[in-house]
Design goal:
This protein has 20 helices and 21 strands. Strands 1-20-19-15-14-9-8 form a seven-stranded antiparallel sheet. Strands 7-4-3-11-10-2-21 form a seven-stranded antiparallel sheet, with helices on one face. 55% of the residues are buried. The longest helix has 21 residues, at 322-342. Helix 3 (74-88) packs parallel to helix 6. The protein has 581 residues and is of the alpha+beta class. The structure holds glycine (GLY). Residues 390, 393, 411, 413, 435, 464-466, 486 line the site of glycine.
Length: 581
């Protein structure tokens, strides 16, 4: 006994010495958790033991929770939510758009990305959206039937279900069918529909659904019934994705396209495939970051910015200090400059993912950052990574009792996409073609510029910023997160991660903390209300062009701890709900 103690004591002494000499990595508990409670907290997340969903719409959250309670897994709930949001959140939830799903299968201990981004129709070409004068025709690329890429959502949800689902497909669409028969309009939706009047007015099929007979707007609390959408959902429930890509829905979609000089043909629909991709991975302060690979730029630049920031002790400089915000802004600029040059659909262009996410490249970029001076955007050019080896999007997160995790971000691009519904289907059409670089150097609706890598080409997927993300500690998913927000998605997700990991905030505090954003061009440091005036003064003094604009992002996040799940739906828009059981 005594000898055993002596051996043990000797072992501990040796470990201590090695650790003091820096010869051991820092000793982590088996499961280092993100903080869930601090005595200083003013806002708290929802807690549940078994399963949880967080979405931008309470009715969709309820649909997902019901599926979990019925014994569905996280993918089943994610599929049900995807269909439900197409009904209750028509500004972003969709059948006529596309997006990305990231999942962790606990039994297989494997993460997988499903890419259901829209593709350019076969009739689209590089200069298709330029006017006779060679300028980008913004009306055509944003608010016409030609603005639509071939939709991917139905194929994506079906592929996710086929690979990982447990409950029958039909069961997962039932909640959406019920909601399409009529649901009470929220205050947020009533206001959003008012704002959509301009983009919908040219399309009688849209006005018929989203406004009353005489063009009068719906009020909060009134019922919105979408019988055509309910019929489309029933067909998809009974016949599977074929109904959408080859059957009765496809026929109506194509007829509507033909009637409005749209580009999508039956062949485009039949040829559409959702794709399984390997997620992009990085490590940040011992946590593994798993995120969406190209054709989203989200994961690559999230990891690139985290790698740069890892070179500084952000916890010491604090969450909203000028020093921290300066470092963040400078890192963001460098990443967005690279985005404009290197990112595009990996099936068409070689994207230097490994180079952009390499620690060595991040150290090189960090060394270029002046601690006391903002680099003007004009002084920044895309870097040299080692070569090649809407705002109106929506995100939701799901965790189930088996440890599975799902993060989905999908979109029509701008609110209600092009504003047009394909007559007889109840389905809003996306305007995702605007995410291509229609002309090199000319900004899209989000002010993003791009070049050859993101030029229009038939069958190609436009570059995205959607960043559904999972964060792991010792192999366990500890954070599921993502956001809408166009070009601001990457930096919004970044700040959730920094707030949770560096600043030890609970997920509610991490969500409501004021955000910043810089995307290289335009050369402005965009901030939300809530950053102190003296911080702004310091940043301005260091050369930042600080502008306060409207709130950014709408994150839906879940933190998993050994005690259970903590979720929070962003309060920047009303109507979201994190709920569990
Ligand atoms: N449509 C916005 C994005 O995909 O980034």
């Amino acid at each position: 006994m005594r000898r055993c103690f002596r051996n043990h004591a000797f072992g501990l002494l040796l470990l201590l010495l090695l650790s003091i000499c820096g010869l051991l990595p820092s000793i982590q508990p088996a499961w280092a958790e993100p903080a869930v409670y601090n005595a200083r907290d003013r806002i708290h997340p929802t807690f549940a033991r078994n399963g949880m969903v967080s979405t931008q719409d309470a009715l969709a959250s309820q649909a997902g929770l019901d599926i979990l309670r019925q014994g569905g897994n996280a993918i089943d709930a994610a599929v049900a939510i995807g269909f439900a949001l197409a009904v209750t959140l028509p500004q972003a939830g969709n059948l006529g758009g596309g997006g990305f799903l990231l999942t962790y299968d606990a039994a297989q201990r494997q993460s997988e990305a499903i890419d259901f981004r829209e593709t350019a129709p076969a009739a689209a070409s590089r200069d298709f959206f330029l006017s006779a004068k060679g300028e980008v025709d913004e009306a055509r690329i944003r608010y016409s039937h030609q603005a639509s890429g071939t939709p991917g959502t139905v194929a994506g949800l079906a592929l996710a279900h086929q690979r990982h689902g447990r409950l029958p497909w039909k069961t997962l669409i039932e909640p959406a069918i019920r909601l399409a028969e009529g649901f009470p309009i929220s205050a947020e939706l009533a206001q959003s529909l008012q704002e959509a009047r301009k983009s919908m007015t040219p399309w009688p099929a849209s006005m018929k659904i989203f406004f009353k007979a005489d063009g009068v707007a719906y009020q909060a609390g009134e019922t919105l019934a979408q019988p055509d959408l309910a019929a489309s959902l029933r067909l998809i429930a009974e016949q599977g994705p074929k109904a959408f890509y080859e059957g009765a829905i496809a026929e109506k979609l194509i007829a509507d396209m033909a009637a409005h000089q749209g580009l999508i043909t039956l062949a485009d629909l039949k040829n559409y495939r959702a794709v399984v991709r390997t997620p992009v991975r990085g490590v940040y302060r011992g946590y593994e970051i798993v995120s969406m690979p190209p054709p989203s730029s989200g994961g690559v630049h999230l990891i690139q910015i985290l790698n740069i920031l890892e070179t500084w002790p952000l916890a010491e400089s604090g969450p909203a200090s000028a020093v921290t915000l300066h470092r963040m802004a400078e890192a963001m600029k460098l990443a967005y400059a690279d985005r404009s040059e290197y990112l595009g659909d990996p099936d068409f262009v070689k994207v230097p993912v490994a180079g952009l996410t390499a620690k060595a490249y991040a150290r090189e970029l960090a060394a270029r950052i002046d601690p006391n001076r903002a680099q003007p955007a004009t002084a920044i050019k895309p870097g040299q990574p080692q070569r090649y080896e809407s705002d109106q999007t929506t995100h939701y997160s799901v965790a189930d009792q088996d440890g599975n995790a799902v993060a989905v971000t999908y979109t029509l691009n701008l609110a209600y996409g092009s504003g047009a519904v394909a007559a007889g289907t109840g389905i809003l059409l996306n305007n995702e073609m605007d995410d291509f670089a229609a002309k090199p150097g000319v900004p899209n609706a989000f002010g993003l510029i791009g070049g050859d890598a993101n030029a229009v080409s038939p069958g190609k997927r436009p570059l995205s910023s959607m960043t559904p993300t999972l964060v792991f500690k010792t192999g366990q998913p500890v954070l599921i997160t993502g956001s809408p927000g166009g070009s601001r998605i990457i930096t919004t997700v970044l700040q959730i991660i920094l707030n949770v990991l560096d600043h030890q905030m609970n997920i509610a505090e991490a969500t409501v903390a004021p955000r910043i954003h810089h995307q290289w061009l335009p050369d402005e440091l965009r901030i939300e209300e809530g950053i102190s005036p003296d911080t702004v003064r310091l940043l301005t003094g260091w050369g930042h062009q600080v502008v306060i604009k409207e709130a950014m992002g709408n994150t839906q996040s879940i933190v998993r701890t050994p005690q259970g799940l903590y979720g929070f739906a962003d309060t920047r828009r009303s109507g979201g709900l994190a709920v569990g059981y």
